[in-house]
User: Which sequence fits this backbone?
């Protein structure tokens, strides 16, 4: 039996903040007890003791939106499951939910098998999969039932990217109807891709080829319109809906209105929309390409609505949409034509820290930090209370977090396999110190002690908000 006791820290979950020691045995949390109590003192014999005095003891982060090795725009996201999960661990994330991709003309099963082949035996933290539907047909719809049964319980559809991942409204409605029947959760990339493609063509014809035009053609109204349409389609189908990477104030308003009406509609935003803006997309010398993602970064004024949405629970989750492409040889593919810049930003290592900074900046409480980064993503995607909290019976995925350490985010020091940081030079207070994944130390006092293959595939239950 392996036994670890974490002593002296402030345990923060979405529900509570308590000064307690935590007993871990064989990969699970066994008990919490007040510092100095007889119970806690009795745990130490034969145990490895991790001293968390003056530190926070928080659940490992659950990042419900990553794209390791995603094929996009003629290249692949530059983090493998090995490099990406190692970087996640450095940043205090102990579970990722990545997107397996159905290729057009292929079965879901083929896509899922391909994702297992990429991930299995390579991850240093636990992982699960959503499924991207890029070809909704009779066979696909039938396959959805089997996937839900085996623990792939959420399906991403795209209203954007015609000819690649795009589904039309009829396909979306059918997939939603299927999910309504089998307990699956539809995740929506809500942008009107057909209209966007017209604007892309017109911009390029007018000689507007720089990265900043990526943000200009992917208009706020086209995110809001698609969000509205997705909500109405979900209502017709009687299915729940989770809108991914929400960036525009007007899209948050659509979600808020739906939630006020009592609909099972959920929204996620990402650190890039909370901390970056179109100012970054406009950086000279093609540097703006580093910030090309979809939905795009918005003018800074949208950020207040996103923070407010997180506080009022109109947005429930912050995931990264980690999808890194190197500036030198991948973002470069779109020099002279912004529509060829691979879409996506790195961030899996930065999310917990950036959100802690948001606590210090007064945007969130500490418990809401843990809620949107750990507990709610775990509940949303059927992983709670195994993941997302520190409670008897939970996996001992635990982070000792130093709330006072200072750090400067930089590509020179990060562990993601990408040649730039979207947050280069940003000064942050707070840093991950030690990370346990199922009781095993994967990061100890800022030294990586994990290994590829420790991470287990986690079949998921269905959404726990329904
Ligand atoms: O720009 C992004 N978000 N790239 C990843 C694919 C997606 O749409 O999530
Ligand atoms: Zn998307
Ligand atoms: Zn994504």
Assistant:
């Amino acid at each position: 039996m392996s036994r670890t006791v974490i002593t002296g820290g402030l345990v923060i979950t979405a529900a509570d903040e308590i000064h307690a020691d935590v007993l871990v045995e064989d990969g699970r949390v066994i008990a919490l007890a007040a510092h100095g109590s007889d119970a806690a003192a009795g745990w130490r014999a034969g145990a490895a003791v991790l001293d968390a005095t003056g530190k926070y003891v928080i659940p490992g982060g659950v990042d419900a939106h990553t794209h390791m090795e995603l094929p996009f725009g003629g290249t692949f996201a530059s983090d493998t499951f090995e490099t990406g999960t190692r970087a996640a661990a450095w940043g205090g994330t102990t579970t990722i939910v990545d997107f397996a991709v159905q290729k057009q003309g292929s079965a879901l099963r083929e896509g899922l098998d391909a994702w297992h082949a990429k991930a299995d035996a390579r991850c240093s933290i636990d992982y699960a999969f959503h499924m991207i539907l890029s070809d909704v047909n009779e066979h696909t719809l039938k396959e959805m039932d089997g996937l839900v049964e085996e623990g792939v319980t959420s399906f991403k559809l795209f209203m954007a990217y015609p000819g690649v991942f795009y589904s039309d409204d009829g396909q979306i409605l059918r997939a939603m109807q299927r999910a309504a029947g089998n307990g699956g959760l539809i995740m929506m990339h809500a942008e009107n891709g057909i209209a966007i493609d017209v604007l892309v063509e017109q911009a390029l014809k007018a000689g507007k080829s720089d990265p900043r035009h990526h943000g200009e053609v992917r208009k706020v109204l086209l995110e809001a319109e698609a969000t509205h349409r997705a909500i109405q389609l979900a209502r017709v189908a009687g299915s729940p809906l989770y809108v991914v990477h929400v960036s525009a104030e007007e899209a948050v308003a659509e979600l808020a209105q739906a939630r006020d009406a009592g609909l099972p509609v959920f929204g996620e935003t990402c650190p890039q929309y909370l901390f970056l803006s179109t100012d970054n997309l406009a950086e000279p010398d093609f540097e703006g390409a580093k910030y090309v993602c979809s939905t795009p970064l918005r003018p800074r004024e949208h950020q207040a609505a996103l923070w407010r949405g997180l506080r009022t629970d109109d947005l429930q989750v912050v995931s990264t949409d980690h999808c890194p492409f190197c500036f030198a040889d991948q973002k470069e593919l779109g020099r002279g034509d912004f529509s060829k810049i691979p879409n996506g930003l790195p961030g899996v290592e930065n999310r917990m820290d950036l959100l802690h900074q948001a606590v210090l900046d007064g945007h969130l409480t500490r418990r809401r930090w843990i809620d949107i980064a750990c507990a709610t993503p775990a509940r949303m995607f059927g992983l709670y209370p195994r993941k997302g909290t520190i409670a008897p019976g939970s996996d001992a995925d635990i982070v000792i977090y130093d709330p006072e350490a200072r750090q400067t985010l930089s590509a020179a020091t990060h562990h993601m396999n990408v040649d730039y940081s979207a947050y280069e030079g940003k000064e942050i207070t707070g840093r991950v110190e030690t990370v346990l994944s199922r009781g095993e130390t994967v990061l100890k006092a800022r030294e990586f002690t994990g290994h590829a293959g420790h991470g287990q595939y986690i079949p998921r239950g269905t959404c726990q908000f329904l």
